[in-house]
User: Fold Protease HtpX homolog from Actinacidiphila oryziradicis.
Amino acid sequence: MDRNRFAPDRGLTTRMVITMFMIGLLYVVFVGALLALMRGSWPLILIIAGGLFVAQFWFSDRIAAFSMGAREVTPEQAPELHGVVDRICALADMPKPRVAISDSDVPNAFATGRNQKAAVVCATTGLLRRLEPDELEGVIAHELSHVAHKDVAVMTIASFLGVLAGLITRIGLWGGFRNNNDSNAAFAALVIPLVSGVVYAISFLLTRSLSRYRELSADRAAAQLTGRPSSLASALTKVTGQMSKIPTNDLRKAEPFNAFYFAPALSSRNGSDGGGSGMSLGRLFSTHPTLEQRLEQLARITLELGSR
Assistant:
């Protein structure tokens, strides 16, 4: 088991286990229903489901990095970023991940990888240009805590299962019913899309709930490791404030990857504004807790560290 100095979070571990169990159970039931309704297409379903799942597990870090425009950089190309990663890894007693930069003015960072040895941590050029060294350390510590706690791998797999459910359904409907004159075909053609939608909706809500909690957990772990909650709070405030100055088109391109980012693009959609049921619904669908929640937690940690 990988060991490091990031504070363990039993609440996060429990939520990851429950999320993976529920989504895994949902997925098994869904595939079982497909096999029962589409008896003639079961080899195709199993091959595609198994192949895509294995590919996603082994290549998730490369897929995510490529999708978000990350390019790996050497210490000579990015000495400041490598220096920060070196310091945090030494402080956390964990292996150094690959370091990457994304050429984007959207100030953000993310980490991905199925384990510490296969991890990648990436910062955008917009983030590097805007943050002070101590603020950057807080952000990198936040991202590396995702790797140390393994929640980034769980998020990648959990998100993929919901997408896979829809993909299998489309393949089955396209290939399983075209030449199928069975009396159950019409019934299955109506029921399977409905079931697929339910599977996707449940997996979506489960991953969103886990995503919000893991961001608070990463803030806690980073603040406790570095001993400077105020630096992380400053980075959060600065990054969130700068988002409003980024062109909307750039934010929309980044929005699909919100669950992996340090701070969400188009954060006004995350329920921090407004009131009543609209605000509650926004928070239910959001990938991150509100800025107020994150700053309040960091303020409490500051008081705790001061009292020691």
